[in-house]
Amino acid sequence: MDTTPAPLRPSPAARGEHRSRWTTRRALVAHVALLVWVPGCAVATWWQVGIALGGDSLGWIYSVMWPVFALFGAVFWWFLVHDDPETLGRRGLRRLQTDDAALRSAEQALRDATLEEAEAEDPELAAYNAYLASLSREARPGTWRSS
Fold first, then answer.
1. Which of 17-26, 86-95, 97-106, 136-145: highest mean pLDDT?
2. By C-alpha distance, which of 83, 63, 82, 76 is closest to 37?
3. CA dist., res. 20 & res. 44, Å (int)
4. Which residues contact 36 (CB under 8 A, 6 or more apart)?
5. CA-based angle 21:25:29, to the nearest 5?
6. CA 121 vs CA 38, 111, 112, 115, 118: distances in Å
7. Residue 48 burial by CB count (10 A; 0-12/13-18/19+): exposed, middle or buried?
8. Average per-residue pLDDT in the chain?
9. At a CB cut-off of 8 Å and minimum separation 6, what does 106 contact?
10. How far apart are CA 51 and CA 62, in angstroms?
11. C-alpha pair distances (Å), 87 with each of 15, 36, 83, 94
12. What are phi and psi of 10, to 5 degrees?
C-alpha cells in the first residue's frame, strides 16, 4: 500500500496560470487611481504653498500634508498591486480550508497505513486495538466528570 500523502493543489503561479500582477483588472484600476491621485496632490501642494506665501501660516501645514497624502496613495497602490487576492479575504480563507482538509486527510491516511503495518507485524497489538475499538463502541461508564 502506498503511504505517501496526496499532493496539495498547486498555486496558480506554480501551474503557470498567474497573469502578470501589473495587468490585472485590479492593478489597472489602481494605476489609473494613482495617475489621478499624485498629480492632484501635487496641485493641492502648489496651491497651499501659494496660500502660505500669501501670509496664511496654516497653509504651511497643508503644504506638507498633501505630499504625505501622495506618499500614502503610492504605498496603498503598491499593496493593491502586490497583494494576491487568492490569499486574502474569503477566497484565501476558502483555499486555506481546502488545503488544510486535504492535508488532514493525507495525514490520517498515513496514520491508518502505519497502524495497519504495525498491526500486521504484531498480532498482540492488533488484538489490543480491536479491544479498545469495542470499548469505544459500547456505552461508557460514568466518570468523575459525568457524575
1. 97-106
2. 76
3. 33
4. none
5. 100
6. 72, 15, 14, 10, 5
7. buried
8. 81
9. 5, 6
10. 10
11. 16, 28, 8, 9
12. -70, 155
Mean pLDDT of the 36-54 span: 96
Q: How many CB atoms lie within 10 A of CB 145?
A: 5
Nearest 5 degrees, angle CA 4-CA 14-CA 27?
145
* CA-only gyration radius of the chain, Å: 31
Could you please report the per-residue DSSP string of the chain? ---PPPPPPPPHHHHT-PPPTTSSHHHHHHHHHHHHHHHHHHHHHHHHHHHHHTT-THHHHHHHHHHHHHHHHHHHHHHHHHS-GGGSHHHHHHHHHHHHHHHHHHHHHHHHHHHHHHHHH-HHHHHHHHHHHHHHHSPPPP-TTT-
Could you tell me the three cell numbers for 71? Answer: 506618499
Count of residues making up the chain: 147
Instruction: Identify the CA nearest to 125 among candidates 134, 135, 115, 114.
Output: 115
pLDDT in the model for residue 15: 52
pTM over 0.85: no
The ranges assigned to domains in the chain are: 16-83, 85-136
